[in-house]
Write a structure and sequence with these properties.
Layout (H helix, E strand, L loop, with lengths): L1 H7 L5 E2 L8 H11 L5 H21 L3 E5 L7 H10 L5 E6 L2 H14 L4 E2 L2 E2 L16 E5 L9 H14 L5 E7 L4 H7 L6 H17 L8 E8 L4 E8 L3 E5 L3 E5 L4 E8 L3 H10 L2 E8 L5 E8 L1
Parallel strand pairs: 1-12, 2-3, 2-6, 3-4, 3-5, 6-7
Antiparallel strand pairs: 7-14, 8-9, 9-12, 10-11, 13-14
Bound molecules: S-adenosyl-L-homocysteine and N,N-dimethyl-L-histidine.
């Protein structure tokens, strides 16, 4: 973490990876975001899953579900219930960096679905991570919530390629993506009136204070989120409200000019063609494209080429 933070804070545009949002408090704040009126993503994806998963899972005969960035597994329950409805539910493997949340989730699911094996994996999916071998066939690899958008395209392709390498002919990849649309609608989702997204953004500084004994003053940084149209993405920044120095043991003093920012997240928005390209770069073929009726969000199914 120290190395990553040192490297991220020494580039002209300071940048930290969004995985540092998700300590226990950050995961709670994200859950709060999913319930905000402005944040249409989660409820839209949930509606697509509810109407479609029983049919898809029955058709595929899915016996194991491997989920990247599972978080609270709220929406995973829809897929698991569909697997149970089809009589094929054998194994659920949630993968996440957020330790406390992952273990809580696993314990809850074991209670809810007796007979289902739940084998959580704590891993950074941006790095090399092991996908268990011998998964009951066929597997569905799911990456929901639009989290793929939080990775720069080369990293997204690396991640998908790694999963693709473990996929067998009958396995499928289920990807949730937030779609390109009216910019105002997207920007409002990242600038909610209750300030929950701002608190989520600033929480990263509290994580650095806690983990690295840094002395960031979160109130000295302002939340900023805007759409960057060239790359079709939201960028979230923390902007220093005045000139200041922050001490990070092991790194030293990090200076901020007034108005200088740390980019804390990108959230890339997609369309059918961009997902087909992403899949194709990772050795997957876009088999099914399922947007909601307003084309806010879409689920895509990929099969190994
Ligand atoms: N899938 C859930 C949660 C999305 S929030 C949903 O759709 O609502 C993003 C999740 O991805 C968080 O739980 C976070 O801890 C996890 N995450 C983010 N970056 C990660 C990384 N590099 N490796 C593993 N998990 C990561
Ligand atoms: C997890 N991820 C898909 C969210 C997003 O919309 O990019 C994280 C988030 N950032 C701000 N609000 C929500």
């Amino acid at each position: 973490m120290l190395e990553e933070v040192a490297a991220g804070l020494s580039t002209p545009q300071k940048e930290l990876p969004p995985k540092y949002f998700y300590d226990h408090r950050g995961s709670e704040l994200f859950e709060e975001i999913t319930r905000l009126p402005e944040y249409y993503q989660t409820r839209t994806e949930r509606a697509i899953l509810e109407s479609w998963m029983p049919e898809l899972v029955a058709e595929l005969g899915t016996r194991s579900l491997v989920e990247l960035g599972a978080g609270s597994a709220e929406k995973s329950r829809i897929i698991i219930s569909a697997m149970r409805g089809a009589g094929t539910a054998a194994l659920y493997v949630p993968i996440d960096v957020s330790v406390t949340f992952l273990n809580q989730t696993a314990a809850g699911l074991r209670r809810e679905y007796p007979g289902l094996t739940v084998d959580p994996i704590i891993a950074d999916i941006a790095e090399h991570f092991d996908i268990p071998s011998g998964l009951p066939l066929p597997s569905l690899f799911a990456f929901l919530g639009g989290t793929i958008g939080n990775f720069y395209p080369p990293a997204a392709i690396r991640l998908l390629s790694r999963v693709r390498a473990a996929m067998r002919t009958t396995d499928r990849f289920l990807l949730g993506v937030d779609l390109r649309k009216d910019v105002g609608r997207i920007e409002r989702a990242y600038n909610d009136t209750q300030g929950v997204t701002a608190a989520f953004n600033r929480n990263m500084l509290l994580v650095l204070n806690h983990e690295l004994k840094a002395n960031f003053e979160p109130d000295a940084f302002q939340h900023r989120a805007f759409y960057e149209a060239v790359n079709h993405r939201i960028e979230m920044h923390l902007v220093s409200t005045y000139e200041q120095e922050v001490r990070i043991p092991g790194i030293g003093l990090v200076g901020f000019r007034q108005g200088e920012s740390i980019r804390t997240e990108i959230s890339c928005k997609h369309d059918r063609a961009s997902v087909a390209d992403l899949f194709s770069s990772a050795g997957l073929h876009l088999e099914i494209w399922r947007p909601d009726s307003e084309s806010l969000f879409a689920l895509a199914v990929g099969r190994p080429v």
